């Protein structure tokens, strides 16, 4: 500040230099903002055509009359196996669909066990066969709690059947890249995975499939472009979601976009490295956003908010419906159930999966929510570069108590959605596209034969149909409020303190 005042107090040359710097900075920010609003040519060619109201209206009428559900797609599931199942995180988005698909293909409720920290909250699991399943409240960060869930006696009719474990439980902190966040995530996502894996071994499981994350492959997006590179696009602004990184050594922490991605990558290596003849293992990496239930962060969260601040209208992403993600787990299990599969190319590795269609833009999803939801929904346009600068300020503020512990009891904590606005968010909210090619190959060619049962257009419209059926005729004070996975992570973190 003293330097600037000194320049202004001197000759007109000094004042001109300050003015030129200010103008240059403003122009630079305008350019970065325009880049953040843009869509590179390769993504323009790859993405779907914009959704139209006529297209959405047709899909809504068709799905309202003939909904796509677990029951209507049961013929596309792998055949029933004579096995018993532990679904860790079975009350969640992916785990819940795994349970429902297992039941739909003929598994008996007594052959399935849900191990979860959450209470049963999915309405589609509160009645019928799903309501008969044994649910064991478990903290997987505790060895004793995890072992108790796995050693509980099974009904005699299924006690001697081979055991498959689907590990879908994790806590999600999507935009924090700090070591302090990693320490919290390590307890659940890494140590919890170790505990579940160890308990599965003791229980005699011979198949273990874990839900990883497509975000593992995401690199930091370098939005602050050097002046001599302004004719191009930010580095990593467009990224594929695939398994290429798995063939190389695990990256250092700083090369992951967030602490969450680093924790999931570490957990994935633990699972895949455990593959052997007695316990065949592998992981499924869902594409960037999983949707398909009111608790999800993609469609459910905006519907719950009603008013959604947004700056990512232009961003092109691959998404995956929860039913597709759970189907991929069952497809993988069908391969690993073969006792000879430990040496097959599918074992001990990840498969990335997405909906069976090209990626879409966020503006398509927002348009569908606005036009089809019976509850009010609107977006509030924000300036991307302004949000980016604000994100750095929030991150700096949140890190102060970690750098200077004396401030912990002095500085007010950042709460609500504001704490998610950190620089890492702009790396996961970038142009990300996935392919099903490796997973969709036939088993004989090294794949798992995955083919999704619902595309993104129908999946998102179907979710809106279900939301409307639950809310039509309700007053605003009677709307059903759902907790997202990020909210649950916050609550769990508070309990751990």
Automatic annotation (TrEMBL):
One CC-aspect GO term: endoplasmic reticulum
Keywords linked to the UniProt accession: Isomerase, Membrane, Oxidoreductase, Transmembrane, Transmembrane helix
KW Transmembrane (keyword) present: yes
InterPro entries noted in UniProt: 3Beta_OHSteriod_DH/Estase (IPR002225), NAD(P)-bd_dom_sf (IPR036291), NAD(P)_dehydrat-like (IPR050425)
Entry keyword Isomerase: yes
Pfam families in the record: 3Beta_HSD (PF01073)
Transmembrane segment boundaries: 12-31, 85-104
BP terms from Gene Ontology: ergosterol biosynthetic process
Domain of life: Eukaryota
MF GO annotations: 3-beta-hydroxysteroid dehydrogenase [NAD(P)+]/C4-decarboxylase activity; isomerase activity
Start and end residues of each 3-beta hydroxysteroid dehydrogenase/isomerase domain: 86-369
Family: Belongs to the NAD(P)-dependent epimerase/dehydratase family. Dihydroflavonol-4-reductase subfamily.
Name of the protein: 3-beta hydroxysteroid dehydrogenase isomerase family
Organism: Ophiostoma piceae (strain UAMH 11346) (Sap stain fungus)
């Amino acid at each position: 500040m003293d330097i600037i005042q000194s320049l202004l107090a001197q000759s007109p040359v000094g004042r001109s230099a300050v003015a030129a710097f200010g103008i240059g900075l403003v122009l630079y920010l305008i350019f970065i903002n325009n880049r953040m609003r843009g869509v590179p040519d390769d993504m323009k060619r790859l993405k779907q055509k914009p959704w139209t109201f006529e297209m959405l209206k047709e899909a809504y009428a068709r799905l309202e009359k003939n909904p796509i559900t677990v029951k209507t797609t049961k013929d596309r599931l792998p055949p029933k196996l004579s096995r018993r199942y532990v679904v860790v995180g079975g009350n969640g988005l992916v785990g819940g669909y795994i349970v429902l698909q297992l039941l739909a293909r003929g598994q008996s409720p007594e052959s399935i066990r849900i191990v979860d920290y959450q209470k049963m909250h999915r309405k589609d699991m509160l009645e019928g066969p799903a309501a008969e399943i044994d649910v064991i409240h478990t903290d997987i960060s505790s060895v004793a709690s995890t072992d108790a869930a796995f050693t509980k006696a099974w009904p005699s009719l299924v006690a001697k059947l081979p055991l498959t474990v689907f590990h879908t439980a994790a806590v999600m902190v999507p935009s924090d890249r700090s070591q302090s966040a990693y320490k919290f995530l390590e307890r659940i996502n890494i140590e919890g995975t170790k505990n579940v894996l160890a308990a599965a071994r003791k229980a005699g499981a011979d198949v273990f499939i874990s839900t990883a994350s497509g975000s593992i492959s995401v690199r930091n997006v370098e939005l602050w472009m050097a002046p001599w590179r302004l004719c191009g696009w930010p580095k990593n602004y467009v990224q594929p979601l695939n398994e290429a990184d798995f063939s190389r050594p695990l990256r250092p922490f700083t090369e992951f976009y967030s602490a969450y991605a680093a924790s999931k990558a570490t957990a994935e290596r633990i699972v895949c490295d455990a593959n052997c003849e007695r316990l065949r293992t592998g992981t499924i990496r869902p594409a960037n956003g999983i949707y398909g239930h009111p608790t999800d962060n993609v469609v459910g969260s905006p519907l719950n908010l009603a008013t959604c601040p947004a700056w990512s209208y232009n961003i092109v992403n691959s998404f995956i419906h929860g039913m597709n993600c759970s189907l991929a787990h069952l497809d993988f299990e069908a391969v690993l159930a073969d006792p000879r599969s430990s040496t097959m190319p599918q074992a001990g590795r990840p498969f990335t999966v997405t909906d069976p269609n090209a990626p879409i833009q966020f503006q398509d999803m927002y348009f569908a929510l606005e036009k089809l939801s019976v509850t009010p929904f609107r977006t509030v346009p924000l300036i991307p570069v302004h949000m980016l600068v604000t994100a750095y300020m929030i991150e700096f503020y949140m890190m102060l108590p970690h750098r200077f512990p004396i401030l912990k009891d002095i500085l007010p904590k950042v709460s609500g959605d504001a704490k998610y606005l950190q620089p890492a968010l702009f790396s996961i909210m970038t142009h990300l596209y996935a392919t099903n090619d490796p997973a969709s190959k036939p088993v004989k060619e090294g794949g798992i034969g995955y083919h999704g049962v619902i595309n993104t257009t129908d999946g998102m419209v179907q979710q809106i149909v279900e939301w409307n059926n639950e809310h039509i005729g309700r007053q605003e004070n009677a709307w059903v409020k759902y907790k997202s996975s990020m909210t649950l992570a916050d609550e769990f973190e508070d309990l751990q303190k």
